[in-house]
Q: What sequence folds into this?
């Protein structure tokens, strides 16, 4: 064989060898101690702070249990085909249970493959009801929207007719539609005189959402209420939302929003937003892992849908609500005071 | 001396790098993970990368002529939802498939006309088409996953034949067809010739524009097939299906030794490149590598492949 040919093969061998071993070893921190029970959690994507909290919740629960190890992962992009491939690879690897955030009906067959291979699958955040999944752990979006509506009703009592705009994410998303439905139902139930003037999409994009809010307010001066069915505009600095800030400060606009991410809390503290209702991101992981482990290790029976409830944040924190200070502390410690949900609690 | 005679032509072929990498990676993974070298795992891996491989076959042709096609991911997505849309509206298997393929052919044709006749840069044209295609996906679906594919279409993505998944069979058949086109037809020769020297080919009396339009049409057609099979595999016409796949396709081709400056590459390049990426993804999961690191490792391998190619070219001269 020629010297050059040898050289090339050696270079290639080294390169591929280095890459695979380096990446295989360089990530000991991702797998907890090897235990009797090996679980994997597959989130929708890697670029959302909510999933970091969910991961923390799952890891905290792992630490409370004996002999459990967890791998937390996600497709590199929110791509259903990629998620299907991951699920198939984990079936091959033979884990004891899976925690999956559904990217839609496309992954139904992959979930069924796992269940057929004897691996229990618990869904979190987004359910996949058509599949053979073992259980779903998450918040009731309709209930969350309804609570937003109730807060709105309380805030505008006796203020006359409400002209409300809704900011949504990607048009058609099921969980967002449920929130909108709950919101409207609460207003109907309270007998508020209102009109949904417009529903604007921000396509899950911060900049587009900010523009949508500002342009909507600029375009229709009648609007005196805004419901954000996701957190987007409140994740950026308030200087991006001059018109919204001006109108709320003048008492001409009532804003209520979904989600309780830390960046949003400042808007409650300064009175711009009257209240937030959020899913329990930490609970996705914490309760998701609890339910999965109880089913795998103890053969526990849970209802098909395990409702983790919601968190409410208002300025004064009356009733079930948290104050901004209390909730900020949760975020600072990355710990949200959850207790394991056992089958007998339900 | 004899060994050298055997090895040198191999090393001079464009696929050498990807082929060796696949072998080495296979050996490393077999020793590191007992689950890697099993029939069921390899079957899933092959099905997993078949969609990219199918689309790569078409884009490879475009790249060999010195062009680029960034619209394939969108064409895949659009063809998939069109197939789902037509089937769910009762058009039946044949009409649904024809409609979906036609969409790919039309988009490819538009790409070709704009590149060959309007002399626009392929990067710009197909970038525009990427956006148009994805937009049309949303227009068709309204953001909703579309269900209701007919049984035969679902079988294309989920079925098995002689123990192998249908998408893998489709990939193999298309690979053979493409290999024949490239090696044994005048069209194939012109494709390489245009990539080598556009103007010289024109002066020698070849209808360069027609060939160019042809390669974009074929690229759109193959992307359509890939998209239909992907959608059939998922069972649903998904708005995000194929999103960003153009980059996976180009990465697969580069890994397979296709030169982005044109004139070089083969159908087998597309297969090995896509296989390398699919095996890498699977292997990293089997080894328990986090998805953050997976992206980094795939990027590293792409750069290494290009580096290897450079070294190979230098020494094979």
A:
């Amino acid at each position: 064989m020629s010297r050059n040919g040898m050289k090339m093969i050696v270079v290639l061998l080294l390169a591929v060898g280095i890459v695979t071993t380096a990446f295989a070893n360089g990530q000991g921190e991702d797998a907890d101690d090897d235990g009797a029970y090996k679980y994997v959690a597959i989130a929708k994507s890697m670029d959302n702070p909510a999933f970091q909290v969910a991961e923390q919740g799952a890891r905290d629960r792992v630490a409370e249990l004996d002999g459990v190890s967890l791998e937390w992962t996600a497709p590199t992009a929110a791509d259903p085909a990629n998620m299907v491939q991951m699920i198939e690879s984990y079936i091959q690897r033979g884990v004891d249970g899976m925690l999956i955030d559904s990217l839609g009906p496309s992954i139904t067959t992959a979930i069924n493959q796992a269940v057929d291979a004897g691996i229990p699958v618990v869904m979190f955040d987004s359910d996949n009801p058509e599949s053979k999944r073992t259980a779903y752990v998450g918040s009731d979006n309709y209930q969350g929207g309804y609570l937003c509506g109730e807060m709105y009703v309380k805030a505008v009592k006796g203020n006359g007719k409400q002209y409300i705009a809704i900011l949504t994410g990607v048009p058609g998303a099921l969980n967002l539609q449920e929130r909108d439905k709950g919101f409207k139902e609460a207003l109907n139930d309270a007998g508020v005189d209102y009109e949904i003037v417009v529903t604007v999409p921000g396509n899950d994009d911060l900049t587009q959402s900010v523009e949508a809010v500002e342009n909507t307010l600029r375009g229709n001066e009648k609007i005196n209420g805004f419901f954000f069915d996701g957190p987007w505009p409140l994740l950026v600095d308030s200087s991006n939302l001059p018109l919204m800030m001006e109108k709320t400060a003048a008492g001409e606009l009532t804003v209520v929003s979904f989600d309780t991410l830390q960046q949003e809390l400042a808007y409650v503290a300064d009175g711009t937003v009257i209240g937030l209702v959020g899913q329990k991101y930490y609970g996705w992981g914490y309760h998701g892992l609890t339910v999965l482990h109880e089913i795998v290790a103890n053969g526990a029976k849970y209802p098909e849908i395990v409702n983790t409830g919601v968190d409410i944040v208002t300025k004064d924190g009356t009733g079930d609500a948290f104050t901004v200070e209390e909730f900020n502390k949760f975020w600072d410690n990355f710990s949200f005071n959850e207790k394991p949900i056992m089958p007998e609690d339900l | 001396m004899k060994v050298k005679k055997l090895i040198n032509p191999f090393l001079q072929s464009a696929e050498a790098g990807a082929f060796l990498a696949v072998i080495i990676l296979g050996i490393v993974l077999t020793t590191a993970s007992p689950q890697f070298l099993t029939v069921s795992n390899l079957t899933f891996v092959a099905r997993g990368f078949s969609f990219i491989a199918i689309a790569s076959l078409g884009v490879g042709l475009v790249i060999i002529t010195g062009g680029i096609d960034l619209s394939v991911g969108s064409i895949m997505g659009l063809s998939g939802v069109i197939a789902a849309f037509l089937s769910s509206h009762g058009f039946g298997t044949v009409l649904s498939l024809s409609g979906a393929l036609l969409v790919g052919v039309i988009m490819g044709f538009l790409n070709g006309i704009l590149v060959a006749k309007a002399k626009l840069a392929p990067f710009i044209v197909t970038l525009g088409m990427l956006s148009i295609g994805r937009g049309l996906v949303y227009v068709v679906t309204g953001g909703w996953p579309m269900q209701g594919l007919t049984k035969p279409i679902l079988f294309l993505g989920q079925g098995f034949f002689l123990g192998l998944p249908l998408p893998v069979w489709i990939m193999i058949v298309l690979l053979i067809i493409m290999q024949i086109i490239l090696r044994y037809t005048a069209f194939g020769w012109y494709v390489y010739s245009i990539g080598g020297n556009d103007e010289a080919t024109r002066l020698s009396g070849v209808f360069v524009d027609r060939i160019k339009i042809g390669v974009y049409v074929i690229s759109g057609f193959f992307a359509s097939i890939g998209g239909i099979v992907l959608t059939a595999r998922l069972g649903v016409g998904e708005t995000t299906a194929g999103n960003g796949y153009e980059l996976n396709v180009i990465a697969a081709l580069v890994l397979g030794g296709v030169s982005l400056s044109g004139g070089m590459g083969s159908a087998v390049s597309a297969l090995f490149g896509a296989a390398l990426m699919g095996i890498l993804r699977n292997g990293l999961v089997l080894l328990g590598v986090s998805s953050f690191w997976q992206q980094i490792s795939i990027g590293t391998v792409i750069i290494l492949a290009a580096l290897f190619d450079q070294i190979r070219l230098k020494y094979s001269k």
